[in-house]
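testing teh design pipeline on a random one, pls ignore if ur not involved
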């Protein structure tokens, strides 16, 4: 029996690492999601058997995914992927929730997959294989609504989710946000320093004097002249941006390279 599996993590290198480790299990079929929104869409549409769920993600985190997915008629089995300290891990163990501690190891993953096989093998249709998760969710208050960015669109102010942003750029002294739906001036942000104060940290990184990129939207990068790098994004136009030499170290560190 194939185990339809979804890997949920906002960091592409972490998703790639887990997906690679899972190739040693022939019964595991993997898909990936980089945001809570993508994860919930795939869970609703594809009905995976198993979800490897990162807890710490920007905006809506793993607990938000867990809370919504658990309301579905036939929820998947969840395994936490976490960098939490040992105290938090003991809390997960107490609630009989399996977990993988970053950095991942093939030996620990094998134990987790065996547990999953046992649970799924004895699962009755429509039964909840992890009722203990209700206790864990009940002990954790719902997170605050995800902050959103205000942009100017057709003479009106509109709110957009950070996860929908591909990159920001400075155009004629105005900050423009580029999304899959188009490009819009930011409202209330005058400089890139203001922008960094608002969105600094994962998954956003300032890559030069005039651009801040969503690292989850970088699909390719390659060395260029003068120690710079050329970045190619995964938007419709495969936008190319320049990573300045002074930002290369931060870029590689953020990608775990």
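output:
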């Amino acid at each position: 029996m194939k185990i339809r599996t979804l890997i949920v993590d906002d960091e592409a290198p972490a998703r790639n690492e887990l997906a690679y480790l899972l190739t040693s299990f022939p019964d595991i079929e993997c898909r990936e999601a980089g945001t809570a929104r993508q994860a919930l869409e795939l869970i609703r549409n594809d009905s995976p058997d198993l979800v490897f769920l990162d807890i710490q993600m920007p905006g809506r985190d793993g607990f938000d995914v867990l809370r919504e997915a658990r309301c579905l008629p036939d929820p998947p089995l969840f395994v936490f992927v976490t960098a939490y300290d040992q105290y938090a891990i003991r809390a997960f163990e107490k609630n009989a929730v399996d977990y993988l501690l970053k950095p991942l190891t093939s030996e620990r993953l094998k134990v987790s997959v065996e547990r999953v096989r046992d649970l799924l093998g004895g699962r009755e249709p429509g039964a909840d294989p992890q009722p203990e998760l209700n206790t864990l969710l009940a002990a954790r208050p719902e997170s605050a609504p995800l902050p959103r960015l205000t942009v100017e669109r057709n003479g009106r102010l509109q709110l957009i989710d950070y996860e929908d942003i591909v990159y920001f750029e400075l155009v004629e002294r105005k900050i423009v946000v580029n999304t899959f739906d188009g490009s819009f001036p930011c409202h209330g942000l005058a400089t890139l320093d203001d922008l960094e104060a608002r969105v600094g940290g994962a998954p956003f990184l300032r890559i030069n004097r005039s651009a801040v990129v969503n690292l989850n939207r970088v699909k390719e990068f390659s060395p260029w002249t003068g120690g710079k790098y050329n970045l190619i994004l995964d938007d419709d136009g495969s936008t190319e941006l320049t990573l300045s030499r002074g930002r290369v170290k931060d870029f590689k560190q953020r990608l775990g390279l």
